[in-house]
Amino acid sequence: MDFVGAYSADNLKFLLDGLYVTLIVAFSAIALSFLLGCILGVIRYTNIPVLSQITFVFVELFRNLPLLLIIFFMRFALPEVGIKLGLITAAVAALTIFEGAMISEIVRGGLSSVDKGQIEAGRSSGLTGMQTLWHIVLPQGLRRMVPPLVSQFISLLKDTSLAVIISLPELMHNAGIIIGHGYNYTIPTLLLVALIYFTVNYLLSRLSKRLETKNA
Question: What is this structure's pTM?
């Protein structure tokens, strides 16, 4: 094991470049998948005719497909019909669709957990259905969604490593290139990558705990 060689300035910079791409993809997908998941979850919760059924099919389809297949589809299948996405765009799109479907169920469950009596009280006070949803159901539901949402976001960040299959220059991709320069770099490089993933995900989990405490 060559820790000195593996942790050379050039190699560390190369790993940090990969981490930068990982974080760009992860946080872009987190923002977009949360937005998509909220929209889908609210549609399913409110049970809008036809639209709710279409949403159900979308969610069930993408929840039950392997993420790797969706990444392949975005990168290699769409160009066959004239839609060519860049590496980062393809990875973000695949993660957004897959995680958005997952998050929609978290949102729907969080909204459904709000006491029906509070909804009835809101309606009886003169609020419309949408006003009740916005002012009563969503604020309470979102607080209950924090732990599962953060767990899903942590999973999303780790799932960015699957984009190595389309040669996205993220953390695992760059680590693989460093390892390819010498077999004695394998353990030092993987240990450092593991530490980086652990640190980022641990910080996210701690943030989740703080949000839970604040909203308790």
Answer: 0.89
